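[INFO] parsing input record for Kinesin light chain
[DEBUG] input buffer:
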Amino acid sequence: MHNKSLQIRLAVLGHNHPDVAWSYNNIGVVYHRQGKIDQAVDMYDKSLQIRLAVLGHNHPHVANSYNNIGVIYRHQGKYDQAVDMHNKSLQIGLAVLGHNHPHVANSYYNIGCVYHDQRKYDQAMEMHNKSLQIRLAVLGHNHPHVANSYYNIGCVYHDQRKYDQAMEMHNKSLQIRLAVLGHNHPHVAQSYNSIGCVYYHQGKYDQAVDMLHKSL
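[DEBUG] output buffer:
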């Protein structure tokens, strides 16, 4: 479907039109979800080049392209390139959308995830907390993205062996997820699993087994 759309847009609008860039972007998203990373990067880059040429260097759609490429780099383990892409996205977001916008929060969140993968826990915590504060202010206290922020902060605490703080964050995430997503959602299972892991490292094995069974 996306390729059919692309062919029409190329024929009617030409090769340098924002709608053509969107087609390349959408094809890249599908390739990414299929795990076809090289094809995804190729599509995202085609989209980015059109957006830079047509929309300029400070447009939210350009920030979107940088973000998508950054996510790919993270999955490839190219962490420095990932941070570079997410920072480019962040700077555009700050300049165009302001400091309290969900897209800016997403950039902080993504940078935090890369820092976590690099075991730069202090930097990761700083980024996730910035993301959380924006999300709380803009989205409210019962939004899945807020739950994701609590969850990732909990994971950082866990890797720092700060188990009490990790448990607090994971429980906050779990309560939101249960309220918003219901009792049978993969993210709820993810929360139970992570709480179980914290209990395990605290030596609370009965509670750990209970949580892991709920996740299972």
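[INFO] The mean pLDDT is 97.
[INFO] shutting down worker
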